[in-house]
């Protein structure tokens, strides 16, 4: 149902499967579990973060809703599940200076002409310059690369397609990568007959951070996506435009960046205001 009716992405399907398998390991057959069994999960999940508990409970609520809709159960025991009040954390972002340092390092390495270095710079340009998700980036087909129009055609979550802009500098690096790219296949970043994996992308970025002098744990594909969104908002981008560029189905997801910007302003006042240094 999640795949056929909702068009859920493979990563989403895997996450639901892990959560349901984990609950079944604790309770036994989920389709026959009663309210008492579901209520016991609160104690069993007590060591988990509120956001994790909320996600697991959501998976189970949707599972039991499906059973009721299909006539496989007459009652819905999911109201007994724990409902933690999970506060959505503000996304980690990079400062303009940190992004600049990353690009200086990646550009210096790409000047050697090595294919791996040019590929890394291309990945960096598309993560920070276009705000792509990790899965969207590594699975980009060659057909998505623009010829004349400065846009990439990206297939995001749920199979939704969107157009994202490609800067002039990103197009130049893309051109260099296409000249050096080796291997057959339909993907822009081929690897071992398929495409570059998300795990390898994470590793490449953390290695670049270490060479730049930044803490490796501070850099990831999603951190660069957050930086893309936050820096655009700082520059005056409209929230609706940002929603389109990021591929968010709900603008409430995009609004988290207004809180990031507000937090930055508070930090700025605390650091720079004339009274900030007074006891």
Which segments are poorly predicted (pLDDT under 50) over 5 or more consecutive residues?
A: none
CATH topology of the domain at 96-218: hpI Integrase, Chain A
Task: Give the CATH class of the domain at 96-218.
Answer: Mainly Alpha
SS element count, helices = 13
What is the CATH superfamily label of the domain at 96-218?
Intergrase catalytic core
Compressed to H and E, one letter per element, the order equals: HHHHHHHEEHEEHHHHH
CATH architecture verdict of the domain at 96-218: Orthogonal Bundle
Average pLDDT: 84
Question: In order across it, which strands form the biggest sheet?
Answer: 1-2
Distance between the termini: 60 Å
Q: Which structural class best describes the helix and strand composition?
A: mainly alpha
The radius of gyration over CA amounts to: 22 Å
The shape, in one word, is globular
Hey, roughly how much beta strand do the residues contain?
5-15%
Biggest beta-sheet profile: 2 strands, antiparallel
**Residue share in helices?**
55-70%
The count of strands amounts to 4
Quick structural gist:
This protein is mainly alpha-helical and 279 residues long. The chain contains 13 helices and four strands. Strand 3 (190-191) and strand 4 (194-195) form a beta hairpin.
């Amino acid at each position: 149902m999640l795949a056929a009716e909702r068009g859920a992405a493979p990563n989403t399907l895997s996450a639901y499967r892990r959560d349901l398998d984990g609950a079944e390991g604790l309770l036994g057959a989920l389709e026959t579990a009663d309210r008492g069994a579901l209520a016991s999960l609160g104690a069993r999940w007590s060591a988990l973060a509120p956001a994790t508990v909320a996600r697991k409970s959501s998976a189970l609520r949707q599972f039991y809703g499906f059973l009721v809709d299909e006539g496989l159960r007459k009652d819905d025991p999911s109201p007994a599940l724990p409902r933690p009040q999970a506060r959505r954390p503000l996304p980690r972002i990079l400062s303009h200076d940190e992004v600049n340092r990353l690009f200086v390092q990646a550009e210096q390495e790409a000047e050697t002409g090595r294919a791996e270095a040019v590929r890394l710079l291309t990945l960096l340009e598309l993560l920070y310059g276009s705000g792509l998700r990790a899965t969207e980036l590594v699975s980009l087909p060659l057909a998505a690369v623009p010829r004349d129009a400065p846009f990439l055609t990206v297939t995001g979550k749920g199979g939704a397609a969107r157009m994202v802009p490609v800067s002039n500098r990103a197009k130049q690096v893309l051109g260099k990568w296409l000249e050096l790219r080796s291997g057959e296949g339909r993907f822009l970043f081929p690897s071992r007959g398929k495409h570059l994996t998300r795990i390898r992308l994470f590793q490449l970025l953390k290695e670049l951070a270490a060479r730049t002098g930044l803490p490796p744990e501070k850099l990831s594909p999603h951190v660069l996506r957050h930086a893309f969104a936050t820096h655009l908002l700082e520059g005056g981008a409209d929230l609706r435009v940002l929603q389109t560029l990021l591929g968010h189905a709900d603008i409430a997801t995009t609004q988290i960046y207004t809180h990031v910007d507000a937090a930055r302003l508070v930090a700025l006042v605390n650091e720079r205001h004339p009274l900030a240094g007074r006891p």
